[in-house]
Write a structure and sequence with these properties.
This protein is mainly alpha-helical. 49% of the residues lie in helices and 5% in strands. It contains 7 helices and 2 strands, in the order αααααααββ.
Length: 170
């Protein structure tokens, strides 16, 4: 049952991003049929490789939320050290700036600093939308918990073109 919840959460994230399943699969580098099988519930498990591909394409998606429903759907990406040794390179990019001049394309985020009101409204609006989507997904998960599916029968097909059907005892 928890695997179905992963499928619901994944579909909810895709919807929240305004993407189709095909667009999402292409951005993550996941084969479209594999994504379809995960979302439909045919594949009950999501491999570590697929989770890694999703995380690489969408680092803001919380893997804990996706797999276990813990925390928020969207998290801020961890800050990365600019150099593997741990010490930042203070002169990185200095050769790109001739004689201390500036290049406007390198400072594209300056507009965000000069207009903080617009940016904060946008962040608040996105937070509200994510909260609503998260609440909606949690309601769907609760519905599934109240009405779990049961196996009605299992049919086994043999290579000699015969089959047997088994019914669970109630």
């Amino acid at each position: 049952m928890e695997e179905d919840n992963v499928a619901i959460r994944l579909k909810g994230f895709i919807d929240s991003q305004g993407l189709t399943n095909s667009q999402f699969a292409d951005q993550c580098g996941i084969p479209r049929p594999s994504l379809s099988q995960i979302i439909s519930g045919r594949n009950k498990k999501i491999s570590d490789v697929i989770v890694g591909q999703i995380h690489s394409a969408f680092p803001m998606l919380s893997v804990l939320w996706l797999l276990f429903g813990e925390g928020d759907m969207i998290v801020s990406p961890p800050s990365e050290s600019p150099v593997e040794g741990g010490e930042p390179d203070l002169f990185a990019g200095a050769s790109d700036l001739p004689y201390g001049g500036s290049q406007p394309e390198k400072f594209a985020n300056v507009n965000a600093l000069t207009q903080p009101q617009n940016m904060s409204k946008s962040v608040v609006n996105k937070d509200v939308i994510y909260e609503q989507k998260n609440a909606e997904l949690m309601r769907e998960i609760e519905k599934m918990r109240k009405n779990p599916r049961k196996v009605s029968h299992i049919t086994v097909y043999y290579d000699d073109s015969t089959f047997e059907t088994f019914y669970p005892k109630d």
